[in-house]
Amino acid sequence: MLPTHLRKFSEMYATYGLGAVKNVWLLACLIPLARTVNLYKLKDYVGGVMGNADTQTESHYKRLIRFFQDWGGREDLLHDLMRTNLRFLRKQGFTTLVLDGTSWTIGETKVQYLVLSVLVHSVAVPIYWVQLEKLGASNQEERKDMFEKALTLFDLKGMTLLADREYVGKEWFKFLKDKGIGFVIRLKFADYYQEVDALKGKSYQSMYDKCLSKGKLVRKQIVIAEQAYWMVMIPNTKADNDEAALIFLTTLPPIMKTVQLYVQRWKIECLFRHLKTNGYNLEDLNLKDAGKNQLMMAIVTTAYILAAREGWRRRRQIPPQRYKDGSATLEVSIFRKGLGILVAKCLRFIDFLQYVISILEHEKHPFCKNVQ
Fold first, then answer.
1. What's the pLDDT tens digit per position in 12-31?
2. CA angle at residue 141 from 135 to 142, to 5 degrees?
3. What is the pTM of this model?
4. What gap in Å lies between CA 347 and CA 344, rounded to an integer?
């Protein structure tokens, strides 16, 4: 019966064969159960979910290792998994992108990832990522190259990108604008002050002073490398922050709604926490090759999205946690709520496959390119 179920992943099965498809979905089933990506730990769960607990765990370990040796670095499989992941989100809808980096240590080597996510019901979901060959912030060319590749898979035109202060640059801004991607990007104090002062009207310092003295949003249209943008300043209301004002560059209307949209950027930090320490323990990753790491990231993303889907369905069951300042958050995150539900679907591999097939079968997603 198992091969019949696997053949329902029609295009993937036809392209990569039974073994690869089986291992992809087996790993997606094991990760929520074991709460880790460590292959040596995952091996202990294979026999149980496959209904044969008497099998040798070491043989399962060799099988998982061999899968990554054979398929790590295969860009076609990686991209197909990225597209498949978005099919799980077909009915959710999203228009906002978030870009940020994260790093962790594999053995004695520290790796740096640049991750592009979409915001779905205020949950950041990764759609494309690259492992940088260095530590620290990405440069403009690395970001442009990443987006060029992502654009071959997904239609990002008309969406809005949120990014922090390290994701700036004249060529980068123009690139996004030329691709039809709006943005709200935070700036450091004095970034592009010359461009502000070059035009008639408020100087950079007068904008900053007025923002703080009047306690309100201040804006001015400026030109950077022959491209028009809005610079927006607003008082920083966080008492524990050493920056008196928040400063943004944006292609959107320079209104409070734009600033409020940027606040959602921190959701990608929640994503990293769930992937790395508070959910699937991505920092347990023991693969040292970049291609293998990226393949595992795609499978982890599958498991993450499945948990988030279950959480979204039960969002109203999560009580709010209210604070003295009047703000409120969910007592349990969408991901953590859904993870508890997802685990019950992973106890038997055949049941997990049927669950996944019920979501994907006969579905397409207009956001993905070349999905049949």
1. 778 888 889 999 999 999 99
2. 40
3. 0.90
4. 6
